[in-house]
Amino acid sequence: MDVTEDNWMSQAMSNVDRYLNRGGESQGDKPQLLKGTQLLNTIGIAMGLPIRNPADWTHEEFVQAENGNLCFFVGTSLEAIQAIVDMIIYCCDGDSENFITVLPVELYFQDKLYELPIFRVSRYKDSHRYYVDNAGRYYKSFDDWYNNNKLPPGLMLYPYRLVLSAKSNGRANCYYAKTPSDRADSKTARAVDTTTAVVGIGSSVGLLFASGGLAAPLVIAGVASAAWGTGRVSYQLVDRASHGEKINPFTDSQSRMLWLGVAANIASFGAMGATMRLSSMAARAKDISSTFRLVTNIANGTNLTLSTVAILNTTIHMILHKDELTKMDVLFHLASVAFWTKGVFSYKTSGAIIRDAQNQVFNQIYKELPPEQRKELAQVREVVQNDVSLLRQFYSASQSNISIQEFSNFLVEAMHYSDSLQSLSPEQIEAFASLRGYLRDDLNLISGLQRYSEEHNLNRQDTLNQILNMWRENINSGNVQQSDIRLSAGTIIMGRAPPIDIQRMPELSAPMIRFVGQHLSQIDTSSTSQWSISRLLTLQGHGLFTLCPITGIAPTGHSVVILNNHLHISIFTLSTLPAADCQTIFRRIGELRNCNRSGDIPRDISNLCVRDNRWRFEVHRNESVQWMNGCVNDPSLSNLTRIVNSNLLPHEKDRLYTFKANSTLFKVELYMNKMMQFVSAMEPRNISEIVAYSEFVIARVEETIPSVEKDLLEGRKTLPRGKKKSVWLREEASKEVFQDVDALKQKLEDLKTLVNDNNMVGVETVEKGLSDDRLVQAIRSKQIKFGGKISAAYHIFKHATDPPSDYVNQANRTMRSSSSTYTVSVGQEGDTRIISFSDENGSCIVLEKDGRVLLCSFRATGRS
């Protein structure tokens, strides 16, 4: 692999990282108990040797392969592997089943990067460990290998002390050094360097000559020769042959090492042909397509982590491309991923894999349904007798943002109504065909019949009778009306939705048209201007509607959509994200199922949405309100309970989420009831004031902790036996704070007076709709203040400046500083912009909504 001197190490470290997570996260160093064909295949894949063609297998060999008992290597490849196996058995006192860990060694030589395996072996997990390299040489310890390995002159990077472990950043702990032959005291390096450029193997003919014919199978496979770059190892092979020394790699260890160096290089980096390129791709676990991940998971019987929709899409892709899955392609993928997952080396035909995939999809679908509906869907499957056709219908439904449960219910109901049709009169059947032809949407037809049946408490037969009678009457009276769709100046207008340019109609996906018809056509006229078809089309290009369904419109905020019932967010906010982030968010949220707790949200999407962008999923908001209800669940706190149970706005729920996180961080449960009693007495008017009063108390308790700790150190207080110090300190500090509630109230009143005297509260306005840069200019031209007295008092206490009276002035100096930098982001609801300023004196956050500008917080440099 060609690399430059500047980036060889980063590439090598990335290679080692893959081994760190081989078999699972941070499981790479965990040994496997291997023997027989599983050991042979593991070694062969690790060394990158050519795999035999399944097209040449006998029936008996196919049976062995399906049972995981067939070695995928033959001929010289197998002999080379067997030489390593023999050395492993020798090191382990003759045992054929031993603990094996595959460790990568990365060699950088003449602008090329080579990856060679070394096998750490032991008879028992706690017995002496030996290291066997790809040459079949063994070493008694890391130091033995470090000083005596026969790698050619160059740089080597390897897991530190040949142990795969992670550093604090999650990357593999690696070390690099010169190879022994390249160190200052090495005689080998000088001997080889004299003729490095003289002899090289540049063709398959040269390889055949140097290896005595042993490389013939590789040449037949269409693989060009390569060596350790341009000549050192090649020279040694030719030199040994010219002087009559043994070059048989299976009787002479040094020749074997040299020959395997050539062979490994060919298999890994000189690969040619579709199957070899496929193997190279499969060796990089993160690059394997979801299609082949599914192939391997099904073939190896491992658990699937993809969602039902993802498995469905993947299976359909496999069905459509089944003719492209050659036996060799499938084998390469199965073998490569079995190696990286530490799975079983078994083989299945593409037809068997697809049949298993079909069953797997239906098993996943059944899991999402209640027991009774599972049985009924199984009956549908039995009646249809065509899994491929059914799966394609499920796939089409998912493309239209129709859930698995909804479509399963549709199929079951359709089966029942099909049974009911058998008893209708010919005139009714004709009317049913007319109704179905007019609607052109079987899903709406069946769901409509079902709703009518439930509303009027009718069985299916009676429902059909009534609906069809009404339909025939409407046809005869001419009362059937077309949908509320009209043309105007080259655009199509559906209801109250924004106009759609006729020329752009082909760009709209079916789910987006459904969204416009079902949701935007019904919006309030005053909200129409918030929506933009062109913006929705851009987001569609990133995966909205296709990867992630929109399940509704939120009544609050600025063009807020509901993503898959989990996240309420404005399309304006989504439009500010990089395309890659959008695609990731849409894909991952589209895959979410049954997230009833915040802990059900996968960490990667939680990090991207919650940590990086400060958005809140609905489950976060609901949990925060439930938690706050628990905090005020006391008859004496009825004024707080009334506020918490009012119709809270999204930003108020988000405020509770942040407060809940801070309360957990500072162990506020130790004094929560006393704090709520204090807050209740202050008669807050809304959630913002409840939180501001509460966080004032928290800051007061945290401020008192150092004095309590000083009393402990100087002997005035004693830590009770068995009591955790951090908990005890907060308990004692809170006791001191609430010992004199009047003093606590007076402190707050003093702060409010300070806020009043220094004119820290007031709303400034700017022109609405300014660009980000012009908005910043307008902010810098004004004196920005807090929106409320309580919030101001809390902030100047928690992030006090010197003097506290200068808090707002210092914040504004940071905003106006010529050296200050700023960033502008859009809030989750799309109607607020958050502007962050920062310079050497501190950082502050300002909010703008509808031209109203408020100071949110300021933290001077050096303050926590």
From TrEMBL:
Keywords: Membrane, Transmembrane, Transmembrane helix. It comes from the Eukaryota. The chain crosses the membrane at residues 257-276. This is DUF4781 domain-containing protein. It comes from Leptidea sinapis. The lineage of its organism: Eukaryota, Metazoa, Ecdysozoa, Arthropoda, Hexapoda. Residues 117-380 form the DUF4781 domain. Pfam families: DUF4781 (PF16013). The keyword Membrane applies. The keyword Transmembrane applies.
